[in-house]
Amino acid sequence: MSGFASWIGGALGWTLGGPIGAAIGFAIGTAVDKATSKGLLLEPPKRGSRQRRKRTDPVYEKRRRRISTTQKKAQTKSGDFEVSLLVLSAIVMKADGEVTTSEKNYVRDYFVKMYGKERANHAFQLFNGILKKEDLSTRQICQQIQLYMDHSSRLQLLHYLFGVTKADGHVSEEEVELIETIAGYLYINDRDYQSIKAMFYNPVDSAYKILEIDKSVTNDEVKKAYRKMAKKYHPDKVQHLGEEHVKGANEKFRQVQKAYEQLQKERRF
Asked: Under DSSP, is residue 103 helix (H, G, I), strand (E, B) or coil?
């Protein structure tokens, strides 16, 4: 459990509070209970211990929360993005009432690819605990993420969630509708939502949707749209999350390039 505890310590920042903190706390408790049942942890101190619980002043706590919500949005760190992925993945996977092995494997494989096997194992241990929590509030969790996470990181979250829905080869309407709801809660506009969705579902005129333009635009407008989207989805936008996420963001960037090349070929310019 020491490795797990160390990983948790390094992973949590602004996620310690709010609904995400509650979900993570539940998951940690589940992991601790499991370890205790196997004799991996010592018994907790008895009630006669000299340790005292700190009293919480409700007035102070209310004021602290009010101040925190008005503070400038902090730049998201890798660990905060990581646990946000886990919580939102759990919500989406449970949308259709069934969590498949393929979906769970997608999460594990993604974390192995991004963070390495050891860190992925710790993340998946936490993820299993989150899946067991029944009362996850999608709206409250997304509000916390939107409050602290920059726009580029939220777009990366959305891209990942679409990958989760396709992991088992079956995409339910409930899952897609939930992701659209999540996008709204995260303040991601419809054009950005449709752009990322088109990277996975290849609708008619998907190249136009990815570049967020209509078929009626001129060639010059296609070029302008490409430059705009290439800038929006450039991997450097999530560089603050760590090198592992820069690699993950390359997929969105490649899709934009592919869409532009397709239109170049179709329009012959």
From this structure: helix
Q: What is the pTM of this model?
A: 0.76
Give span(s): CATH 1.10.287.110, the chain.
202-269
H-only helix segments in the chain = 2-11, 18-37, 58-70, 78-93, 101-115, 117-131, 138-148, 151-166, 173-185, 190-201, 206-210, 219-232, 243-267
User: For residue 85, which amino acid is it?
Assistant: L
Domain 202-269 has CATH 1.10.287.110: yes
What are the pLDDT digits (tens) for 96-114? Answer: 777 888 888 888 887 787 7
CA 43 vs. chain centroid, Å, equals: 35
Fold of the domain built from segment(s) 1-38+73-188: TerB-like (1.10.3680)
Report CA torsion sign: 208, 236, 126, 182.
negative
CA distances 131 to 30, 34, 82, 126, 224, Å, are 11, 15, 15, 9, 43
What pLDDT was estimated at residue 239? 85
- The length of the chain in residues reads 269
Kindly state the average pLDDT of the residues 46-74.
Answer: 44
Residue with tokens 């939220």: 154
CA distances from 209 to 29, 154, 196, 233 (A): 44, 19, 9, 14
Q: Taking the mean position of all CA atoms in its chain, how far away is CA 212?
A: 23
Write phi, then psi, for 222 (nearest 5 degrees).
Answer: -65, -45
Q: List the structure tokens of 3.
A: 């490795």
Nearest 5°: the CA angle 138, 139, 140 is 95
